[in-house]
Structures are given as structure tokens and as C-alpha cells.
């Protein structure tokens, strides 16, 4: 498999030659394609190798987020014979999906690196939960990748279009796809987000059908799904490792363990984008720094009173804002920069929309 087909870019080539120039070792580039706990597999131009993180990298890493994870591009020292390769450096990431470690105030957990798209998969059965979707969207916006909501198992639904509209209302400006991995309906629309060399990740609770979807996209039963697993008494987390798959269509897709909950981690803009409707309303508040509590001329409160905005939605917005105040911290400057560039225009258009709407109303 060539590096190009794994998503190698000129920017990565440049970063890699930087690493080479600062090292006396003979290193080769590769991408982490499998992660099972601490165990990494790296695909190089030649082959897939098991890799161990070099002690220097382990000890100098500022936090868990700096350590290599699925999707990362890395610099490897090849083993002399059979053994493991040594992973000496992680090349700069253009995006990073980070979840706050459960129970930890500080450490973020890197779920996947260098994603172009994050597919937030929501099941049709008992899994569908608007508040969780909002959280997931915030997580995705913060990564620097584009979020796309995927409603799975549409074959179980009578009113697919109605459900799509419902979700579109929760996530203004975010594409919403509906598909069935069983029938194949809607699967092409997802593939359209993954042209050759682009990387996506499937994020969603256990049982929403992520593995079934990967099997369908690969055209073979590569992954065990809950239906085929013998002992299904626990009924969750059939997938216990993360893996990057090269799809026949040229795109790259990461499947991972189901996520029971989404923590909040990262920058303020993530919340703003998941709540673009509230942001747009806030543009109509009398005071620019309105906190939407009891200020006069608050357009957000007014919308709640008129029934145009759900009070619960405003509540979860405020909750996320509060959580973020505790967890703001510097992320990778590269990620930050790319993210700003990527999202700046969306925030601007949400503001513009708010202004026109206000003019139209008065
Ligand atoms: N009706 C219907 N069932 C589906 C569809 N996709 C998946 N399922 C079923 O949903 C169950 C869970 O699917 P999985 O693919 O194992 O779910 P997962 O998200 O990978 O779960 P974890 O590996 O535990 O994270 C299985 O019984 C599948 O057969 C679909 O499009 N329609
Ligand atoms: Zn206000």
C-alpha cells in the first residue's frame, strides 16, 4: 500500500524531513492503522509493523494527547529482524479528536488523529438522544474535522425524512445523512464524504451499527458484529480496538469502540457551532456581552418565551459553557489554527443570519 493512498500529503513530507534532519537514526514514515490498548500497528510504504513508542517520546510527552494514536503519522525505526519497530516521533496533526478522560480534570484522551470527517452515528432504536448529539457535535467541532450526523438503521423507521428534519433542527448547518447498513440505502452519500486519501471516523454508542457499516463498505464481513457474536449477554462493545480501513473506493475509515458518553473538551467555538441557532439569536441581544439571564433586550430569552427556542436547549448550552470554563486549555497550536480558519466563516454566517432575521422581524 502506498503512503499516498493512506493520505500522505506534501505538508507531512515536509514535517517528516524536519524530523529526519534532527535525528541521527534512519527513520521511515508510516501511519498508525491499528490500536489495541497500548499496542500499535503502523503501515509503512512496505508493510505493516507492530510498533513500540520510544522511551524518549514517552517521557517527553506533555500529556497523553501527545502520544501516538490511531490515524497518526509517525517516524519509525525499523527492527533489524523480526521484532517491533520503535516509534520515535509523531508528525504534526491537522486534526485531533480528544475526549476528556472520565474522572480526570486534566487529561484528554486522544480518540483519533488526522481526521477530515467525523461521522456521528445515531441509532434509531433507543439510542437517539438530542442532548448527547449536541455533546458529540461539540466534540467533533473541536477536533478540527467536519462533523456529519449519520442516522443508522433506517430500515427500522417509517418516517425517515421526518427524523432527518428533526435532527437537522438540532444541528443547524450540519449535514445529516440517513442510511441502512443492512439494505445499503444511503451508503453512497456517506462515501461521498470520503474521497481518496481522506479519513473519516465512526463515532457512536455501542450497537448503533458501526461495524456492520464498515463491513458493508469493505464488501466483506471483516468485523464481528453483535449479531454474530456468540455470547452477547452484555450486548455492548463488540469492538475492542480501533482500526483504520482502506475502503475499496479510496477513502479511509476508522472504526472504534462504542462510546457510552461524550465528555466535553476543548475550545469555546465548538459549543458555538453546535448551537449556531442560539448564537444567531444572541446577535439580536441589546448587549454584546449578554449572558441571556435577566438582561433587558435579550433576544435569546425572548425566543424561549415565544416558544421559538426550547428552554432545555438553552439549558444544555449554558451547561456546556460552564463545563468549558473549567476545561479550557491550550490545544495543539496547529490544530487551533486550522480550526479557526475552517470555522471562522461559519460563525460569521451565523451572525449575519441573526442580523438579517432581526431586521426582517422588526
Ligand atoms: N435493522 C438493522 N439492523 C442493523 C443495521 N446495522 C446494524 N444492525 C444491527 O445492530 C446490531 C449492532 O450492530 P454492530 O455493527 O455490531 O454495532 P456497533 O456500533 O459496531 O457496536 P460496537 O462494536 O459494540 O461498538 C447488530 O445486531 C446488527 O445486525 C441496519 O442497518 N439495520
Ligand atoms: Zn441575551
From TrEMBL:
Domain CP-type G: 103-262
Required cofactor names: Zn(2+)
EC id: 3.6.1.-
Cofactor binding annotation: Binds 1 zinc ion per subunit.
Sequence positions that bind Zn(2+): 285, 290, 292, 298
A Pfam family assignment: RsgA_GTPase
Domain EngC GTPase intervals: 113-260
UniProt subcellular location: Cytoplasm
Keywords, ordered alphabetically: Cytoplasm, GTP-binding, Hydrolase, Metal-binding, Nucleotide-binding, Ribosome biogenesis, RNA-binding, rRNA-binding, Zinc
Subunit comment: Monomer. Associates with 30S ribosomal subunit, binds 16S rRNA.
HAMAP family assigned to the protein according to its UniProt record, in alphabetical order: GTPase_RsgA (MF_01820)
Assigned protein family: Belongs to the TRAFAC class YlqF/YawG GTPase family. RsgA subfamily.
Stored PANTHER family: SMALL RIBOSOMAL SUBUNIT BIOGENESIS GTPASE RSGA (PTHR32120)
Job description of the protein: One of several proteins that assist in the late maturation steps of the functional core of the 30S ribosomal subunit. Helps release RbfA from mature subunits. May play a role in the assembly of ribosomal proteins into the subunit. Circularly permuted GTPase that catalyzes slow GTP hydrolysis, GTPase activity is stimulated by the 30S ribosomal subunit.
Protein name stated in the entry: Small ribosomal subunit biogenesis GTPase RsgA
Organism: Pyxidicoccus parkwayensis
Amino acid at each position: 500500500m502506498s503512503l499516498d493512498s493512506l493520505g500522505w500529503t506534501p505538508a507531512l513530507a515536509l514535517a517528516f524531513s524536519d524530523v529526519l534532519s534532527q535525528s541521527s537514526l534512519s527513520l521511515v514514515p508510516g501511519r498508525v492503522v491499528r490500536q489495541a490498548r497500548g499496542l500499535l500497528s503502523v503501515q509503512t510504504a512496505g508493510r505493516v509493523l507492530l510498533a513500540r513508542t520510544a522511551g524518549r517520546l514517552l517521557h517527553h510527552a506533555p500529556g497523553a494527547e501527545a502520544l501516538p494514536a490511531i490515524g497518526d503519522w509517525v517516524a519509525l525505526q525499523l527492527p533489524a529482524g523480526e521484532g517491533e519497530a520503535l516509534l520515535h516521533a509523531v508528525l504534526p496533526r491537522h486534526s485531533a479528536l480528544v475526549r476528556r478522560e472520565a474522572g480526570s480534570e486534566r487529561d484528554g484522551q486522544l480518540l483519533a488523529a488526522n481526521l477530515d470527517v467525523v461521522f456521528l452515528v445515531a441509532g434509531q432504536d433507543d439510542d437517539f438522544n438530542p442532548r448527547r448529539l449536541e455533546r458529540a457535535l461539540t466534540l467533533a467541532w473541536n477536533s478540527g474535522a467536519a462533523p456529519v450526523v449519520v442516522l443508522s438503521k433506517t430500515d427500522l423507521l417509517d418516517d425517515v425524512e421526518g427524523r432527518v428534519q428533526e435532527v437537522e433542527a438540532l444541528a443547524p448547518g450540519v449535514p445529516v445523512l440517513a442510511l441502512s447498513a443492512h439494505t445499503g440505502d444511503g451508503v453512497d452519500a456517506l462515501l461521498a464524504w470520503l474521497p481518496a486519501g481522506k479519513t473519516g471516523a465512526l463515532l457512536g454508542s455501542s450497537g448503533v451499527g458501526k461495524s456492520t457499516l464498515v463491513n458493508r463498505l469493505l464488501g466483506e464481513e471483516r468485523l464481528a458484529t453483535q449479531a454474530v457474536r456468540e455470547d452477547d449477554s452484555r450486548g455492548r462493545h463488540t469492538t475492542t480496538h480501533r482500526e483504520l480501513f482502506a475502503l475499496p473506493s479510496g477513502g479511509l475509515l476508522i472504526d472504534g469502540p462504542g462510546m457510552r458518553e461524550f465528555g466535553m473538551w476543548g475550545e469555546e467555538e465548538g459549543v458555538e457551532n453546535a448551537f449556531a441557532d442560539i448564537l444567531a439569536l444572541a446577535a439580536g441581544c441589546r448587549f454584546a456581552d449578554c449572558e441571556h439571564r435577566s438582561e433587558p433586550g435579550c433576544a435569546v430569552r425572548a425566543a424561549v418565551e415565544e416558544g421559538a427556542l426550547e428552554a432545555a436547549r438553552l439549558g444544555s448550552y449554558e451547561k456546556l459553557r460552564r463545563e468549558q470554563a473549567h476545561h479550557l486549555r491550550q490545544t495543539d497550536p496547529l490544530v487551533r489554527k486550522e480550526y479557526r480558519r475552517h470555522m471562522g466563516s461559519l460563525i460569521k454566517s451565523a451572525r449575519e443570519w441573526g442580523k438579517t432575521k432581526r431586521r426582517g422581524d422588526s
